[in-house]
Design brief:
Layout: H1 7-25, H2 29-35, E1 39-41, H3 48-54, E2 60-62, H4 67-78, H5 80-90, H6 101-116, H7 122-136, H8 142-160, H9 170-175, E3 178-182, E4 188-193
Antiparallel strand pairs: 1-2, 3-4
Helix pairs in contact: 1-4, 1-6, 4-6, 5-6, 5-8, 6-7, 6-8, 7-8
């Protein structure tokens, strides 16, 4: 049986799709939502042949977005200047405009979530963004790039007291400890939950 995709993972996929479409069309995310130009991802079917055809995140079909997906989309839109500033500060030698659109959309979503969604641990936001980059990334090294930028932002959050990297509350018991692994280049190679 195919593993179930967590509801918030689907919400993030939907939000990235809207943010990406916004970049491609030059229309604001709100304008896309008002026009009803939204897609939602559903779980891959239980049948293995259909699941393979559908891809890792399931089929894309018309539908309505959840409250969480809408909150992410509107939040990124309302805070885009601040979010972009944080991404540019953490992305060494990369101008935001040079990044692949899908990577930029994933980073914007994750940075907004890291700073504004208190019920989501920073490590979960990073892990989810890396998974999105694996599934949709614009380049072969998209997951590593996304993880490196978000890892630098997470370390800066620890240093300035705006947030703590880790798992808090009820999620701590379920997820276990959080470790950031640093690669030979000095950049965070990955953030693993439950190591």
């Amino acid at each position: 049986m195919a593993p179930r995709i967590h509801e918030r993972t689907r919400d993030r996929v939907s939000a990235v799709q809207v943010l990406y479409t916004s970049e491609l069309t030059g229309k604001s995310p709100s304008e896309l939502l008002d026009c009803g130009l939204c897609l939602v991802a559903r779980e891959a079917p239980a049948d293995e042949a259909e699941a393979a055809e559908a891809g890792a995140f399931g089929r894309i079909e018309e539908g309505t977005l959840t409250d969480y997906a809408l909150a992410l989309i509107h939040g990124v839109e309302a805070n885009q200047a601040q979010v972009d500033e944080r991404i540019e500060a953490a992305s060494e030698n990369w101008a935001l405009s040079r990044m692949p659109i899908v990577d930029r959309s994933i980073l914007r979503l994750a940075v907004f979530e890291m700073f504004n969604c208190d019920d989501v641990p920073v490590s979960v936001s990073i892990n989810e963004a890396v998974e999105l980059a694996k599934g949709f990334g614009g380049e072969d090294d998209s997951p590593r790039f996304v993880n490196g930028v978000l890892g630098r932002i997470a370390r800066s959050m620890e240093g300035d007291g705006t947030g703590a990297v880790g798992v808090a509350g009820a999620d701590a018991a379920a997820a276990g400890p959080v470790d950031a692994l640093v690669g030979a280049s000095g950049a965070a190679a990955c953030v693993q939950v439950g190591v």
